[in-house]
From TrEMBL:
The keyword Cell wall biogenesis/degradation applies. Its main location: cytoplasm. GO terms for molecular function: RNA binding. This is RNA-binding protein KhpA. It comes from the Bacteria. It is found in: Cytoplasm. GO terms for biological process: cell wall organization; peptidoglycan biosynthetic process; regulation of cell shape. The keyword Repressor does not apply.
Amino acid sequence: MEELVIIIAKALVDHPDDVTVKTLEKDRLVVYELSVHPEDVGKVIGKQGRIAKALRTVVASAAVKMDKRVTVDIIS
């Protein structure tokens, strides 16, 4: 799942080498903290958060088999 977040994020940004993902697990919740270059934050979030919402939807859909709730947090 972490690789999925990295692949999608690297396709969106201008500085793909600065993309990192940290995984935090709490009970039935998995949080992927996506960190990108400060110039690329807007590209990952998108207008009115549309790209971020789509990214979260794709990851949540892929995580259905894990029987856990999954979310993606974007940090610069």
